[in-house]
Design a protein that fits this description.
single chain; alpha/beta; 6-stranded parallel sheet; 21 helices; 24 strands; about 35% helix; globular; binds adenosine-5'-diphosphate-glucose
């Protein structure tokens, strides 16, 4: 056996181990990494064979042995082995846990390395994932981070609803096939049957939970009449289904199994850690799994009346995990006891670790101003809270090959950017004036995004010789204001009411300045897209905006200048206008400074690989500590 294994191809550097024909192992970098992991196990066999002990059982303990491959003579030449989550890739075994105080410091080698040192079976649970569903940044992140993690060797599944609204968007789910696997979920006083659809794309298992409540006109959360009244039910169903998926779905022939890592995104997925603790672990299931809750927006917590607790399908004694009492000032009337259930609170109590999408925001949520009532709970769990700045999808957002923009450009040749500006002015019906500063805004029209500040500052801003375009939908009062402002300032202002991804790309490419006066911003993606497109951001210095946009300093770096935009503070109409005026002045009168701003923004590393390495660090910490048990 020893001689045979040494002579077989698995011990040569270039020849691949024979892993059988399973699809996951042959299609992605996951394959490469798992292949390496298998090599580790096989070395273990050869060692134990030397001292005469049993070999196959050793492997079984560490992974799932599907069978052995033999050559024509019947000799074993390889094993079809699925390693367990948490496998160590010895090809890359230096340690990146750099700080005992658990600060996210990752050495440069790890960032440059394309495969993870330790690989996990990861299950994202999310209410949206682009390109299948997207209403904002959550969709972007859950559409691209899983791919980055899969590329680094992890086995990754994303569980999200199969939304069908009867429109053209339904085509996005056309590639997902019915897995013919039905499960029954007990919640909301009945038993619901859900189905699973699946598409394997870009190295990731995209799993769509199917139920009639996901099939209706509108977006994932509501329609023209407001939020759907049964969202608590719809996302309870998602969480139950997501907890079953790793156990029941034989993706590529085998399940993810119990030893996996759940990433529950925002309140919609918040029941996942609660279910692990209350429904599974007491019965010996998911004993070694871990869960992370990722906060993209603390302002939305999934709060409903306390009487709805019975809808969750949780044991009565777990009420305390989700129970929530509003402070007196927030109650609606004198007899209101303020009792409610809060899904995100339940997640924050039971998750093994808590992540936010920027470092700045991870601190802000522990303060009364940024904690949305959860700051004390978050402070008590501070030791497990980390912030990792989002990356962006560098394929989708790439000015040198973006399919949505009329001309392509790069750092080396910026001429296409002016063409994008001219094309945008034409498309919007604005006067075509390449020299006129063009300012853009893209985002949801709501309180978070500081629309009220834009609204109060716009009449002053438009006194200047500038053009301003806004793309967004949301609160009706702001949509109406955009229409009215366009009617008043025909040559200067355009308000595009709606959600339109191609237009968002054209605005990002065609504008000179992107405005983001967000009241709070957990990370923000538009400023990252803008910098990549040579569009200079002017932002309120909060959360991820403060972390990612550095204010221009013309004197730094021996007069060459430093910074990628302007981050103003406090959030007032005056300070926003001041920052915009400095930006406009720099654009008009200091062309070389402007080119420096564009260049530094375009050079900024916003890759997901960078963020994925930091996620891996947190995964490691999650598995070092024991899982949450009540
Ligand atoms: N009308 C429109 N038409 C087309 N596209 C539009 C659009 N309005 C918004 N978008 C797109 O939606 C995304 C918005 O992402 P953001 O991160 O800026 O904010 P959001 O508040 O949704 O995300 C939350 O989650 C993300 C992800 O973690 C955090 O970055 C953020 O701070 C947090 O509030 C961008 O891709 C943007 O282009």
């Amino acid at each position: 056996m020893e001689t045979l294994l040494q002579s077989c191809p698995i011990f040569t550097a270039k020849a691949p181990v024979r892993l059988g024909v399973d699809r996951q192992l042959s299609l992605s970098s996951f394959a490469v990494n798992k292949q390496r992991s298998c090599n580790v196990k096989l070395r273990a066999i050869s060692r134990s064979s030397q001292d005469g002990s049993s070999s196959i059982e050793d492997i079984r303990k560490d992974g799932v042995l599907l069978g052995a491959d033999t050559d024509e003579s019947g000799s074993v030449v390889g094993f079809r082995l699925i390693p367990q989550s948490g496998d160590i890739d010895v090809s890359n075994s230096h340690d990146t846990i750099t700080n005992g105080k658990e600060e996210l410091i990752v050495d440069d080698d790890s960032v440059q390395t394309t495969s993870a040192e330790v690989t996990y079976n990861i299950v994202f649970v999310t209410s949206e994932a682009a390109p299948y569903s997207k209403t904002g940044g959550l969709g972007d992140v859950c559409g691209s981070l899983p791919i980055a993690l899969a590329e680094r060797g992890h086995r990754v599944m994303v569980v999200s609803p199969r939304y069908l609204n009867g429109g053209p968007a339904d085509k996005k789910f056309a590639g997902a096939v019915d897995l013919d696997c039905r499960i029954k979920v007990s919640c909301s006083g009945g038993v619901q049957e859900v189905a699973f659809f699946h598409e394997y794309r870009a190295g990731v298992d995209w799993v769509f939970v199917d139920h009639p409540s996901y099939h209706r006109p509108g977006n994932p959360y509501g329609d023209a009449y407001g939020a759907f009244g049964d969202n608590q039910f719809r996302f309870t169903l998602l969480c139950h289904a997501a907890c079953e998926a790793p156990l029941v779905l034989p993706l590529g022939g085998f399940t993810y199994g119990q030893n996996c890592l759940f990433l529950a995104n925002d309140w919609h997925a918040g029941l996942v850690p609660v279910l692990l603790a209350a429904k599974y672990r007491p019965y010996g299931v998911y004993k070694d799994a871990r869960s992370l809750v990722v906060i993209h927006n603390l302002a939305h917590q999934g709060v409903e009346p306390a009487s709805t607790y019975s809808n969750f399908g949780l044991p009565p004694e777990w009420y305390g995990a989700l129970g929530w009492v509003f402070p007196t000032w927030a109650r609606t009337h004198a007899l209101d006891t303020g009792e409610a259930v809060n899904i995100l609170k339940g997640a924050l109590v039971t998750a093994d670790r808590i992540l936010t999408v920027s470092e700045g925001y991870s601190w802000e949520i522990t303060t009364p101003e940024g904690g949305n009532g959860l700051n004390e709970l978050l402070t008590s769990r501070k030791i497990v809270v980390n912030g990792i700045t989002n990356g962006i999808d560098l394929t989708e957002w790439n000015p040198s090959c973006d399919a949505h923009i009329p001309s392509h450009y790069s750092l080396e040749d910026l001429s296409g950017k002016i063409e994008c500006k001219i094309a945008l002015q034409k498309e919007l019906g604005l006067p075509v004036r390449p020299d006129c500063p063009l300012i853009g805004f893209i985002g949801r029209l709501d309180y978070q995004k500081g629309i009220d500040i834009i609204l109060s500052g716009t009449p002053d801003l438009l006194q200047d010789d500038v053009q301003f375009v806004m793309l967004g939908s949301g609160e009706k009062q702001y949509e109406d204001w955009m229409r009215a402002t366009e009617a008043t300032f025909k040559d200067k202002f355009r308000g595009w009411v709606g959600f339109n991804v191609p237009i968002s790309h054209r605005i990002t490419a065609g504008c000179d300045i992107l405005l983001m006066p967000s009241r709070f911003e957990p990370c923000g993606l538009n400023q990252l897209y803008a910098m990549r497109y040579g569009t200079v951001p002017v932002v309120h210095a909060t959360g991820g905006l403060g972390d990612t946009v550095k204010t221009f300093n013309p004197f730094a770096d021996e007069g060459r200048g430093e910074g990628t935009g302007w981050a103003f503070k406090p959030l007032t109409r005056e300070s926003m206008l001041d920052a915009l005026r400095v930006a406009i002045e720099t654009y008009r009168k200091h062309k070389s400074s402007w080119r420096g701003l564009m260049k530094r923004g375009m050079e900024r590393d916003s890759s997901w690989n960078n963020a994925a390495v930091q996620y891996e660090q947190v995964f490691k910490w999650a598995f070092i500590d024991p899982p949450y048990v009540s």
